[in-house]
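User: Hey, quick favor. My workstation is busy. Could you predict this chain's structure for me?
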Amino acid sequence: TGGIDMKKPISAVLTITVALTGCASVYKIQPQPTGQQDKFLSDGQEVLMSQMKHIVAIAPKEPVVRDSRQKFGLNILVKNTGTLAITVGPQQIKARFNEQSLAIYTADEVLAEIEKNQRIATALAAFGGAMSAAGASRSGGRVRESGYVSGYSSSGQYVSGNYTASGYSSAAAQNAVNAANVQTESNLASIRASGSAQSARYSGKSFNAHTLSPGEWYGGSVYFDAISPGKDLTKLKVDVEVDGDVHQFTMDVSQVAK
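Assistant: No problem, here it is.
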């Protein structure tokens, strides 16, 4: 039998690695102030700020999300304006898109997921490469030769005709194995590049559980499940609870033409 074709399985592994399915779209997130909230620019980024007992500011980590199949992020900043210490964390943040709740992740959780998927993909790619190399060694070494011969036999009789011969060539087998190994290295390089690109996208300070002293600022990034906005304007609503107060933020989400 012929060698095992691992290209399709490895392609599937790469898809798993980046966790992408379906058709991607590009969309933008625009903060919209409500009530007594303020909206201002910080380094060109639109930020919403809400003040109750304490101050909470929020902004999209990426105002334009280039791939709707990936998790999107928000930057959260809190200032303790009281006289006692308070504790904040991701468990106090809730988000809804089109009134559907979204799961929340810290940057650390997203990076851990990327690393896990990369380890799985690398192991599967290495296993697939070994299988492909083994199959190449078996099938790639087989050689077949055919042709036409004519001449005189040892008894002096003239003979002619077609012939076919088969056998095994170690050189051909090694060439096939080398080609399989090159493909495996290419697959592993793609996995590493994909993981590095994703890690860079989700890098930065994570908004983890933290106790703020009076007057202290604390901030970081949180991430949410991928969303797929349609052509019509949709709403992203985010609630951040701090010391019993719920700061409610609204953002417009709209698809961007490719």
